[in-house]
Amino acid sequence: MGLSCGGKGFLPLLLAATLLAVGQARTLVVGGSEGWRFGVNYTGWAIQNAPFYINDKLVFKYDPPSESGYAYTVYSLPYLGNYVSCDFRRAKLLANETQGGGEGFEVVLSRWRAYYFASDGGDGYHCKDGPMKFIVVPAPRRDD
Ligand SMILES: *[C@@H]1O[C@H](CO)[C@@H](O)[C@H](O)[C@H]1NC(C)=O
Ligand SMILES: *[C@@H]1O[C@H](CO)[C@@H](O)[C@H](O)[C@H]1NC(C)=O
């Protein structure tokens, strides 16, 4: 009798601890110590840091525009086609050229969809040749 009583309390406790671990959202600085700049392969970064889950946070950190360089921005592109061709006509500006300073600009991956991120600097040059673009598809958490 005593044993079954103890068992009743133990199992829910163990389950709750497991769900908590799985449900922990991450905060990731895009590009790690490199931040968000020209010349970093962000597809490689995304692959290294996969899998992403819903409610994970991405932080874009970048310098404000300098006289020698183009301004960095963060855009969300609607479709894969726009992403591949770096077509910003229907893109949504998430962070302008100054919003990457300080603690950076935070994007919560709140939905189960593909996110296409890119910088539009230099009339598409950053996106095409940087290549300042990457895709993440956050997966639902086990407890969602
Ligand atoms: C970036 O890294 C990915 C994955 O490692 C690779 O497939 C791709 O060719 C790289 N892109 C460039 C422009 O180097
Ligand atoms: C960037 O956005 C911030 C916050 O909305 C705003 O205060 C600032 O004026 C904007 N900068 C430019 C260059 O548009």
TrEMBL record:
Transmembrane segments: none annotated. Keywords: Signal. This is Phytocyanin domain-containing protein. It comes from the Eukaryota. The lineage of its organism: Eukaryota, Viridiplantae, Streptophyta, Embryophyta, Tracheophyta. Residues 26-140 form the Phytocyanin domain. InterPro entries: Cupredoxin, Phytocyanin_dom. SUPFAM superfamilies: Cupredoxins. GO terms for molecular function: electron transfer activity. The keyword Transit peptide does not apply. Residues 1-25 form the signal peptide.
